[in-house]
Automatic annotation (TrEMBL):
Family membership noted in the UniProt record: Belongs to the cytochrome P450 family.
Name recorded for this polypeptide: Cytochrome P450, family 81, subfamily D, polypeptide 5
Residues annotated to bind heme: 377
InterPro entries per UniProt: Cyt_P450, Cyt_P450_CS, Cyt_P450_E_grp-I, Cyt_P450_sf, Plant_Cytochrome_P450_Monoox
GO MF terms, alphabetically ordered: heme binding; iron ion binding; monooxygenase activity; oxidoreductase activity, acting on paired donors, with incorporation or reduction of molecular oxygen
Signal peptide region: none
One Pfam family named in its UniProt record: p450
Length: 441
């Protein structure tokens, strides 16, 4: 397979404007065939009517303004639960916290509650179903994060010298059985309900009725060909994986950077105190006013983009790119790592400087952590809400310090969304000004 790598904003702009439709396809990677239901899941589906239908479902039933508002309580509750756990564990003193696992729990539970009405992560999610789901998701993330030689050199696909195909087949069986049981459970509960209203008032006893799976099952009754069980399972898989890993990893990187730059942490705390105060916890309505917090997230995404080469694209036809002829079937990789750290594009490119975004330094195609064009990540707004809410709440209510005197190691690891090589541990204790607030959570 021929591969082209672009490493400049001008080339990226040409890819996703002039050649946007041409590069809207995905290459046929092994994970797409085995784990993503023969290239029918949204992330691996070729550009066409099926993909457009999936994107429409996500846009309307998960990340529309109405649905995001409807699920506000879920996001708030999961963040509050994290604060409560940290407060109970600290007892007013600095205690060590494994931030990687805590942030992952928040991200996963928000998404699984929106999709299936269930919590699968954390201390209170200890039943067998939750354990199975955690094990399956852990393996899915690991398998997706490993490079498969056969995707680039077809001869290795046949040989399977890494054992990747064999492992994927076993994982597919476990995953498929779990998701099918989940769908059947929802279908059984909904059997006597002719319609699912998306406008019912929020409440724990109604949460299950508003999940994405329930909506898809109701659509299946009128358009079975468009909403098969495999389509539902593929959509659930894509949303859980893509909608959790990137948010959790970015929040971990952000906290690591703030611990290495306490002056930025103090500035963020001061902004929250000024706009929110100390007599209540921040909520999503506060986020538009917290511009420095948003700048911190943008700077984190610049330095540590979740997918440094973006998800691969493939040309569906011959085209030209920056004067070069690109044949049909060429894999396109966008080198975000190079673009985001290019000293010709950014002042002090290697440094953590959230203030750079106050002057519009990240405009255009210089900063595209979630992609661009038709295949841009549809969950950008949801992800940014989760990251800003959780990160803002953590620094509003707790004091944070490094475990030792030395700076946090920022070495990157290998995985689906470029994790830290060493999971982040930090010390935290309640801020005196917010101790009373935390005691009421």
């Amino acid at each position: 397979m021929e591969v082209v790598v672009v490493s400049s904003p001008l080339a990226v702009e040409e890819c996703f404007t002039k050649n946007d439709i041409t590069f809207a396809n995905r290459p046929k990677l092994l994970a797409g065939k085995i784990l993503n239901y023969d290239y029918t899941a949204v992330g691996f589906s070729p550009y066409g009517e099926h993909w457009r239908n999936l994107r429409r479902l996500i846009s309307l039933e998960l990340v529309s303004a109405n649905r995001l508002t409807m699920f506000t309580n879920i996001r708030q509750e999961e963040v509050w639960l994290l604060l409560k756990q940290l407060f109970q564990n600290s007892r007013g003193e600095f205690v060590p916290v494994n931030l990687k696992s805590k942030l992952a729990d928040v991200s996963f539970n928000i998404m699984t509650r929106m999709i299936a009405g269930k919590r699968y992560f954390g201390k209170d999610a200890a039943d067998e179903e939750a354990r199975q789901f955690r094990d399956i998701m852990s393996e899915i993330v690991e398998v997706h994060g490993n490079s498969n030689l056969g995707d680039y050199l077809p001869v290795f696909q046949w040989l399977d010298i890494q054992g990747v195909a064999k492992r994927m087949v076993k994982l597919r069986k476990k995953m498929d059985e779990f998701f099918q049981l989940l769908i059947d459970e929802h279908r059984k509960t909904n059997r006597n309900e002719s319609n699912i209203s998306l406008d019912e008032p929020s409440g724990s006893n109604k949460e299950r009725k508003k999940t994405l799976i329930d909506v898809l099952i109701s659509l299946q009754e009128t358009e079975p060909a468009l909403h098969s069980d495999d389509t539902i399972k593929g959509l659930v898989l894509a949303l859980v994986v893509a909608g959790t890993e990137t948010s959790a990893t970015t929040m971990e990187w952000a906290m690591a950077l703030l611990l290495n730059h306490p002056e930025a942490m103090s500035k963020a705390v001061a902004e929250i105190d000024a706009h929110v105060g100390q007599d209540r916890l921040l909520d999503e309505q506060d986020l538009p006013k917290l511009t420095y917090l948003q700048n911190i997230i943008n700077e984190t995404l610049r330095l540590f983009p979740p997918v440094p080469l973006l998800v691969p694209h493939e040309s569906s036809d011959d085209c030209t790119l920056c004067g070069f002829d690109i044949p049909r079937g060429t894999m396109l990789l966008v080198n975000l790592w190079t673009i985001h750290r290019d000293p010709e594009l950014w002042v002090d490119a290697a440094k953590f400087v959230p203030e750079r975004f106050e002057t519009g330094e990240g405009e255009g195609y210089k900063l595209i952590p979630f992609g661009a064009g038709r295949r841009v990540c549809p969950g950008v707004n949801l992800g940014r809400r989760v990251m800003a809410l959780a990160l803002g709440a953590l620094i509003q209510t707790f004091e944070w310090e490094r475990v030792g005197k030395e700076e946090i190691d920022l070495t990157e690891g290998i995985g689906l969304s470029m994790p830290k090589a060493k999971p982040l541990q930090a010390l935290c204790r309640p801020r005196p000004a917010t101790t009373k607030l935390l005691s009421k959570v």
